[in-house]
Design a protein that fits this description.
heterodimer; A: 9 strands; B: mainly beta; 7-stranded mixed sheet; globular
């Protein structure tokens, strides 16, 4: 059960767009359209932002979007805002035994 | 209001046991699978274990397999994690999380605030 690979940090200025990548394998990201993304502010519980690769839960801004190509999933945040500054984690289903694997997390800094 | 409240954490010596509980409210508990996810201090999220709505499907991370047991009591709207043979590397904030489906394949849409487990002599 290896963790999915995410960049440790990304940054962008208000109004810009950023993309966070999440690389797995053919056993997890590449095999299932069950990738989700979570936002976590310091001292808070994670919040679901994207599920099933590209679906947004009710109440999540349409500035957040997800996609997948092969073994790599991506989260794009457009029109960056100060409140987007947080840690972001990807997560993928990995089969009936392992179930779920998370990425190592990416710290987003809004400059 | 949909809510998950974890309890049972604390300081425990290596090799000892601890049982975590998660009380659910505001939704039909037995309509959804449930999971435990942990986060070591200053580290990322790690999936620990998940259980389907009827306990018919259960999974564990390799790091806890054989030591931890997940269970649920739908009559009490509660989720549990029995942790045995605890190690220093089990030190973490343990979150209870609801998923969007009856099977464990749904995304984690509701999270509790977590209960801290510290394993140290």
């Amino acid at each position: 059960q290896s963790a999915l690979t995410q960049p440790a940090s990304v940054s962008g200025s208000p109004g810009q767009s950023i993309t966070i990548s999440c690389t797995g394998t053919s056993s997890d990201v590449g095999s299932y359209n069950l990738v989700s993304w979570y936002q976590q502010h310091p001292g808070k519980a994670p919040k679901l932002m994207i599920y099933e690769v590209s679906k947004r839960p009710s109440g999540v801004s349409n500035r957040f979007s997800g996609s997948k190509s092969g073994n790599t999933a991506s989260l794009t945040i457009s029109g960056l805002q100060a409140e987007d500054e947080a840690d972001y984690y990807c997560c993928s289903y990995a089969g009936s035994s392992t179930l779920w694997v998370f990425g190592g997390g990416t710290k987003l800094t809004v400059l | 209001e949909v809510q998950l409240v974890e309890s049972g954490g604390g300081l425990v010596q290596p090799g000892r046991s601890l049982r975590l509980s998660c009380a659910a409210s505001g939704f039909t508990f037995d309509d959804y699978a449930m999971h435990w996810v942990r986060q070591a201090p200053g580290k990322g999220l790690e999936w620990v274990s998940g259980i389907s709505w009827n306990s018919g499907s259960i999974g564990y991370a390799d790091s806890v397999k054989g030591r931890f047991t997940i269970s649920r009591d739908n009559a009490k709207n509660s989720l549990y994690l029995q942790m045995n043979s605890l190690r220093a590397e089990d030190t973490a904030l343990y979150y209870c999380a609801k998923v969007t489906t009856v099977t464990p394949t749904g995304a984690f849409d509701i999270w509790g605030q977590g209960t801290m487990v510290t394993v140290s002599s």
